[in-house]
Structure of Bacitracin ABC transporter ATP-binding protein:
Amino acid sequence: MSEYVLQAHQLSKHYKNHPALDRVDMSIRRGSIYGFIGQNGAGKSTLMRIAAGLSRPTSGQIELFGYREGTKLVQARKRIGTTIETPALFPHLTAAENLEVFRLQKGIRDKSQIRQTLSLVGLEQAGSKIAANFSLGMKQRLGLAVSLLGNPELLILDEPTNGLDPVGVVELRELLLHLNRDKRISILISSHILSELHLLASDYGIIHNGRMLEQLSVSELQAKCRQYLHIKVDSPERALGIIQEEWQTTEYEIDADGIIRLYEPFGRPGELSAKLFAAGLEVQQFMPMGEKLERYYTKLIGGAANGKPVTV
């Protein structure tokens, strides 16, 4: 049994002269939740479409469950469920009728999967309401239900939180964690809500302008997200003067609200706090913190966009 449910090997896709994907390598471990991060147009949906067999690569290969070619790859695609871009639904049919169509298309004999899957995604009370009258969030749930038919081993979900209210986002997160932990379904998920991915993903891939910038596990991300002192004082300029005079460091940032993020000397917070108080500064906030996924991602793609090394 392959350690990976999905791998991309030097995968490229060109539309005329535009490279949507440029020699992308990707590895998704069995049992993981892989958070796929990138701006609109970065290549996330293109890669997902190729993995699902909805598009052909210009060069390179997709590997599913250890299979790369021919009928074995076609058979392997029957072991995945996908919701890519807008869910393809029949607007004049109810939720149950939609699932019945897809059940027949997939050759699934067990009709009880329809009721079970609707209950799983919270649409068991949809009744006779047709999909055309669904909210965007309900359509997202129904699209997820379609992808769950047939008990897939890998879910590929493109922006599944679109249209969901905050409660719906939390419910979806809990559902995906349940599917991953209890049913052992591996998940490839893209989202613009990076804080939500941070609560879900065990691994990350960061793509920018069609190129994979980095793949890393959650433990590797935590190691790279630098620790810092979060400092808010009544005079940031005076505080920075003290920091520069006493420690001769430039390892800091200051944001528009005057918050100072001091990366060095992080190991001497007590000494710094005493210096600020001794200078008569009003220290309003002074606490150790760590960078989050959003900040790490912004730095990474900022460096790539400016031709800088993508190390942080």
Remarks:
- Confidence is low (pLDDT under 50) at residues 306-312.
- The chain has two domains: 4-216, 226-290.
